[in-house]
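Hi C.,

You asked whether I'd gotten around to modeling the 480-residue construct. I have! Everything is below, sequence then structure, no commentary in between.
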Amino acid sequence: MRFLIVRLTLAIASVGAVTFAGYKVISLNATTVGFAYLLDVLVVASTWGLIESVAAALFATLCFNFFFLPPVGRLTIADPQNWVALFAFLATSLIASRLSEVARRRTREAVDRQQDLERLYTFSRNVLLWDTNESLPKQLARTLAEVFGFNAVMLYERPSNKFYRGGPSDIEGIEDHMREAALRGITYSDPDRREIIIAVRLGAEPIGSLALRGDQLPDSVLQGIANLVAIGLERARAQELAAQAEAARQSEQLRTTLVDAIAHEFKTPLTSIKAATTALLSSPGAYATNGGELLKVADEEADRLRELVDEAIEVGRLDTGQMRVDREISDLDELVHQIAASMQNALDDRAVLFDCQEQMPPAAVDRRLIRLAIKQLLDNAIKYSPPGTPVTIRLSHDAGGVHISVSDRGRGIPPEEQHRVFEKFYRSPSVKNRIPGSGLGLSIVQSVARAHQGRLSVTSQPGETTFEMTLPLIEETANV
């Protein structure tokens, strides 16, 4: 109200200024002053509004009559033609004020609509480009408050029966209304508190509700917001289902791969055990000559079978996220040599070159998992390097931790594929049909490294590829 009084005062003052200028300063005739009054009324109407312009028009009519129409100095008119001129001026001023107010209001509405469209566009982009590391309903509530300037936003998701809040303030005590709005698809409005609750529909079915506190928006904008929220919730649900389907597919693929790998790996030790037992059973007298050696072969291959079973179990645990890490202080140099010795049959004629710093510090690791990881790295080096070329194992340490690296002399990994080699089941198109494999080995090594709070990296160029596993020092793992 105070601002209205100020505007009315300024509008009347502007008419007074025109009157003073036309009567005292320039001495204009009635026609010129009438146009000046009309121009002033139009300026007032376009600047402030209808009420101010009507007040200016009425005051201008009085001034026009008193100062410029004879008899001057009296609110009467001697010539009847001047009555026509006076009423024509008043009507013109009022009509012009009204038209100016309508144009001003439509301009303001167009600006508001454009602003609403820009806000809806910004919100829709956030719905499409949502951060998968955070719950989408929570992001929707926060983004709504930020984009539209709401004081408080509350989103109710009916399938999960959860509420998500956004904005600088909170809305209390409306949970039942929101559930009812989501169930029945109705709207609640409280103009005094500037709050509104609208249903969020997917097609004809309500899937949630939205409570907003702040400036009131047109129904079309509110419906647009509700539709975008519904699209976002359904998109998040679709992506979640797709992720579950992909996880199930990969889990099934993993099981199939494991079965094939186990069947292949079991053939060698089973063949050796069968050959040893068959020789002993077919020739009982042979036990006296080489029976001990045959039993030793059977015993070693039985241990090999047990290791294969243990590895298969660990791979299964890696897939389900149930891997348990049992740390013990270990000599990595000794452990690596033992692993390389156990893989002599797989190495064939390849030489294993060891490059180890003196006085390697002890490491707190799960020997079982580290053995599995190093065997995977050695197996990977054997498969992807030419026969007869050596494999190099390096052990080193620094302030960043203990480093175990395995290098081969293969063709190398293209730069554009190096960031993908740790993905589960990924195999380069250049070797997919030439070299057998499951695409699981490096993924297993990376999981083992992460389980130890370490990391796995790769550097590759034609003629040399190195995979390096970094494990934290004992002082670092003590606080884990």
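If it helps when you're writing up: Residues 219-282 form the longest helix (64 residues).

Thanks,
B.
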